[in-house]
What we know:
It is built from 13 helices and 12 strands. The protein has 2 domains: 181 residues, 3-Layer(aba) Sandwich (Rossmann fold); 171 residues, Rossmann fold (3-Layer(aba) Sandwich). The strands form 3 sheets. It has a 6-stranded parallel β-sheet, sandwiched between helices. Strands 7-6-8-9 form a 4-stranded parallel β-sheet, sandwiched between helices. The chain is α/β, with parallel strands linked by helices and 384 residues long. 40% of the residues lie in helices and 12% in strands. Helix 5 runs parallel beside helix 6. It is elongated, with a radius of gyration of 22 Å. Beta-D-galactopyranose binds next to loops.
Amino acid sequence: xxxxxRMTALGAALAVxxxxxxxxxxxxxxxxxxxxxxxxxxxxxxxxxxxxxxxIADGNNVKEQLEAAGYQVDLQYANDDIPTQSQQIDQMIxxxxxxxxxxxxxxxxxxxxxxxxxxANIPVISYDRLIRDTENVxxxxxxxxxxxxxxxxTALLTGLGVLNPDGSQGTATGPFNVELFAGSLDxxxxxxxxxxxxxxxxxxxxxxxxxxxxxxxxxxxxxTLRWQQETAQKRMEDLLTSSYNDGSKVNGxxxxxxxxxxxxxxxxxxxxxxxxxxxxxxxxxxxxGQDAEIASVKLIADGxxxxxxxxxxxxxxxxxxxxxxAYLEGNEPEANDTETYDNGVKVVPSYLLPVVTVxxxxxxxxxxxxxxxxxxxxxxxxxx
Length: 384
Ligand code: GAL
């Protein structure tokens, strides 16, 4: 038990007389939470941006599930602006939040806020993205981010026919020209996605089956600041100009996130590829993705994008709520990984969820039958 949690438990035991004093202000959180009724407790939920529909869904899911459990919720989005997120978290603390759920924009930028949270005995749950370089983060809920990368690398190889869908060796031997994209370097996840993907595809680069024609095989070269679609589009355009102006074709693109994939696909379409993976003579390359964003699911249904890695944000929200409830009731949440996520200061106990690769042929089973998207939304490429 961390000293903070010991204090939380101790506080819970001693706080009987304090509850009902009205709370508010730093110091009212965490320590007296265990004896309070849920409706007297406020949870601050800090999300990065509303420009990506996944974070909107995450925010809504967490808020709805916490409210259903009776808690008050202060949900804030920060427009991918670090000072805005810092200020929002500061405000949550001064307004007396009893617990924080934080999906950081920059995983290293929140140390002073989290020190203030620790000083006020406010438990902090890191949501999907690990908060780094501080001991003041109590728990991490996410997916198995290394496996996301493995899934993306595998989907690239499968789409090209190097592997069969069951993972066995396929008949295609290439050589295939591929280009590699990574996420935002200030997001811890970007490194896990990249590592998992590169561990999967590197042997095929070494054997000559895959050729990265641009030579850009370092994460720094492949990175996309703030996961911006436009930045990925621009880099793909630059790659086409610099490395494919000799008539050679791109056959595959490793992309770690659907928003980037859409930018990459736009650049390829503008250069005459596609419209679909089957189109002749210039087929759309095999493009991977992540998040099963609705616009991209439609692209997969239409045979334009090859795959996405589906992470069910409803389940992630559920884990965040389970962990939050545990803390607020004076308990410790259950971790299923206590080794992988070293944030630079300590290993943060984590609960990791599994992921599923979605291709055209399992959209129905994984996304529609599970109620994540309706068939109508997939057909329109828009959520209702
Ligand atoms: C990551 C997250 C991905 C994707 C990306 C861009 O942190 O794990 O699922 O959403 O951010 O938003």
